[in-house]
Amino acid sequence: MRNKKGDGLILLGMLLIFAAGALTVWNMYDENRARQSAETVIEQLQEELTVQTPPETVPEETQPPVIPEETEPPEPVPYYRQEPVGEMPAKMISGRPYIGVLSIPVLGLELPVIQTWNYQDLRRSPCRYVGSAYTDDLVIAAHNYLSHFGNLKKLQTGDQILFTDMDGNVFTYEVAVLETLQPTAVEEMTSGEWPLSLFTCTIGGKLRVTVRCDLIGEEENLNSPA
Fold first, then answer.
1. Residue 204 — left, alpha, or beta (φ > 0 → left; ψ -120 to 50 → alpha)?
2. 222: Cβ–Cβ under 8 A, 6 or more apart, which residues?
């Protein structure tokens, strides 16, 4: 009886080891698939983004004399700030709408962002959770793949993050705060107090690694169709 019990325990242990190995292989395959998918989409999105060109200048010899003004004219307000709305322009690729490209230089990441989120799309690409770059309350979620948001915890205060929308407007952010939130802290995550928030789940999904960012600059694409 003891031998049978011991054999059963050995068999159970072998099965657990096999299951753990199979899970590791599957996770590696799933992450590699997500990385390849993101790279393919980025290539297509880059073709869509309008390249900014500097305005033509008048040759120096024909330029009119500069007349000093008592007051400087106000800087023009970008079109997306004049009547800010939550929805950003999207480009359909393989049946999914993408709103732009998220770049995190210090982590070597350049990722497409899907317009809306669901669990299936999160396995392919970061997704807009809520908000907009135009209303300074954009929240982006992604899986904890190393090729997606798995290294968010390595970011430090002052690191820069860029988001380029599909009109070619570039928003530059700076990491301000790193937080760890409960999965149930939806209101705290989406309160709109930060211009940009990035988050992913920890291994096992018990907590949410959250990066809060301030907006430090924006560049309107003067060639955008708006």
1. left
2. 52, 55
Rg (alpha carbons) of the chain, rounded to whole number: 23
Contact call for residues 143 and 200 (beta carbons, < 8 A):
yes
DSSP assignment of 144-181: --TTTTTTGGG--TT-EEEEEETT--EEEEEEEEEEEE
Which H or E element spans position 132?
A: none
The angle at the Cα of 157, spanning 153 to 160, to the nearest 5 degrees, equals 90
Report the candidate in 208, 103, 115 with the shortest Cα–Cα distance to residue 161. 103
Instruction: Report which DSSP code applies to 60.
Output: G
Over residues 189-222, the pLDDT tens digits come to 988 899 999 999 998 889 999 999 999 999 999 8
Q: What is the pLDDT of residues 111-146, one digit of tens each?
A: 999 999 999 999 999 999 999 999 999 999 999 999
As beta bridge partners, residue 215 has 173
pLDDT digits (tens, 9 = 90+) for 53-86: 444 544 555 666 666 666 676 778 898 988 877 6
**What's the rounded Cα separation, in Å, for the pair 218 and 216?**
7
